[in-house]
Amino acid sequence: MTQPMIRRLYLDPPPLPESAADTGFAWFTPGRSTPAVPVALPPDAALLARGRVTLALVLEVLARRRRIDQISSLISAPVARYLAAHRDLATGPKQVRLHSVRLCQPHEQAGEFAAVYYVGPRAHALAARLERTGSPAGRERAPRPGAGGAPIWTLTALRLG
Questions:
Q1: Which domains does the chain have, with CATH numbers?
Q2: Which of 63, 101, 113, 133 could form a disulfide with 90 if both were Cys (CB 3.0 to 4.6 A apart)?
Q3: Per-residue model confidence as pLDDT tens digits over 68-122
Q4: Helix extents (H) in the chain
Q5: Half-sphere exposure of 85 (CA within 13 A, CB side)
Q6: What does pTM read for this prediction?
Q7: Separation in Å, CA 60 to CA 31, 55, 113, 148, 149
Q8: How far is CA 26 from CA 13, 14, 40, 139, in A?
Q9: Around 75, how many Cα atoms within 13 Å sit in the side-chain half-sphere?
């Protein structure tokens, strides 16, 4: 019977030969400065408030307290289809409530949200993305009175956990 071969596991990458230093990966070489890493913007309070309202409306749709067409100006077509497929979130007298919302803004045109919501006593997770668009969900409409040129944010991605 043959013995199994045991191989040594190397955790560090092998050193680069000097000729490979100019391949665009030179910043991996020890002792060299690293390139600037893009950092997310500080959270925008207005966007966080807009996200909370939008996610609360989405939970009302999922709990069947609101129709999808009532929030169609706030959501994209793929999100509307996703909501239609997941409308049976709450049946009966269960209470659906939004607990906490966290915002990460990778750039000025988008905000990504992670939220916790409760259906009765059970906690669930939710991830969403709001993007700044020229018109809601690709539809042209007159500006809202009192909007004052405020940006239009559309919910473009939604996942429930």
A1: 45-138+150-160 (3.10.450)
A2: 63
A3: 999 999 999 999 999 988 876 555 556 889 999 999 998 889 999 999 999 888 8
A4: 45-62, 77-85
A5: 9
A6: 0.67
A7: 55, 9, 17, 27, 27
A8: 14, 14, 25, 47
A9: 25
